Amino acid sequence: MEKAFYSNTLKKSIRISTTTDNAWNMISKIGELQWLDGIKSSKYLSNKKRGVGAIRSISFLDGTVVKEIIVGWRPKKYFSYIAISGLPLRGYHATISIIQTKNNKIKVEWESFFSSESMKKNEFADFVKLLTNFYIESLNNLKHSLEK
Questions:
Q1: 116, CA 20 to 30 Å: which among 30, 86, 103, 124?
Q2: Average predicted confidence (pLDDT) for the chain
């Protein structure tokens, strides 16, 4: 099978019984990511800890190290970031949003667009499946952390 470039979008969300403030307090600490699935550690790579221009490095249990920079930031609403290294991609842009719903609940939405390095179609399909499971498990972890 010949290698080619592929792109895709992914969108996952979860409803959580918490306040916008509590959720933002947890997800906006971009260097403290205990709720991410399969994480070993994370750290800041910039003096800036919040907002556009903050840079982080995330080490995963499988040995992958991903570096990301914040490119969009609206307190208590969303932040956007791009991966600058560590993924088998030419581009990755994601946004994590908090949407207020009824009865003291919120919806956290994680949406991304990504395009691959040159790879086989089945390799890209496997990556999409891996990323989908990562979003689902991480959002479930976030829910459990916020609903304690």
A1: 30
A2: 96
Rounded CA separation 67/85 (Å): 5
Residue 117 CB burial class (10 angstroms; 0-12, 13-18, ≥19): middle
Q: Which H/E stretch holds residue 54?
A: none
C-alpha to C-alpha distance for 101 and 97, rounded to whole angstroms: 13
Query: In order of start, what are the domains of the chain with their CATH numbers?
Result: 7-146 (3.30.530.20)
Q: Would you call 49 exposed, middle or buried from its count of C-beta atoms within 10 A (0-12, 13-18, 19+)?
A: middle
In this structure, are residues 128 and 99 in contact, taking their beta carbons and an 8 Å threshold?
no
Condensed to tens digits (0 to 9), the pLDDT of residues 11-47 reads: 999 999 999 999 999 999 999 999 999 999 999 999 9
